[in-house]
Amino acid sequence: MKKLKEMILHIAKTCENDPEFGATKLNKILFISDFFAYSVFEKSITGTDYFHLPKGPAPKLLKKAQEELILEDRANIEERPYFGRKQKRLVPKEDADISIFYEDELNLVKQVIKLLEGKNATQISDWSHDFLPWLLTEDREEIPYITTFTMFHVPTSKQGISWGENKLNELMESGHAS
How far is 121 from 138, CA to CA, in rounded Å? Predict the structure, then answer.
């Protein structure tokens, strides 16, 4: 939970001047960062699980992490008017402890934030609905990290398919894939 809380603070601080930053954008930055990290580093950044919600993927422990940050007096939730709606935004009261992250992880999150720059919650939600990891799951169902490999449309050789089958078998034997 510590890594999730620190990453939430880090993202919120980084995005504090982004008028489109709110709860939905935070969810998607976390999801995309964690799933891309899994595909590159073979582990997520925050270590949290994600589940399928109607507006796209979200961290299972997001609300609990935010509640703890508020109770610890490290952040507030502000509601702001945003095009006739209420935007809920986490506002940090202090900087995150980024020393618990690798530089590559922070760089990946920075790239994801840049990728979503200028996009609002509706655009990001619609975009996340095209991700196969979200499409392959039902409402409230956990989105397995292994599905990150469905996010990329890359031609695969017979050797690559064989490698993938072997890797999947290894993961299934170790209990990491279901």
Answer: 21
The position carrying tokens 């490290």 is: 74
How many alpha carbons fall within 13 Å on the CB side of residue 93? 11
> In angstroms, rounded to a whole number, what is the distance separating the alpha carbons of residues 178 and 171?
9
28 neighbors 56 (Cβ within 8 angstroms): yes
pLDDT per residue over 69-91, tens digit each? 999 999 999 988 777 778 889 99
DSSP 8-state class, residue 94: S
Do 146 and 39 touch, CB atoms closer than 8 A?
no
SS3 89: strand
What gap in Å lies between CA 14 and CA 5, rounded to an integer?
14
Please state the pTM of the whole predicted model.
0.81
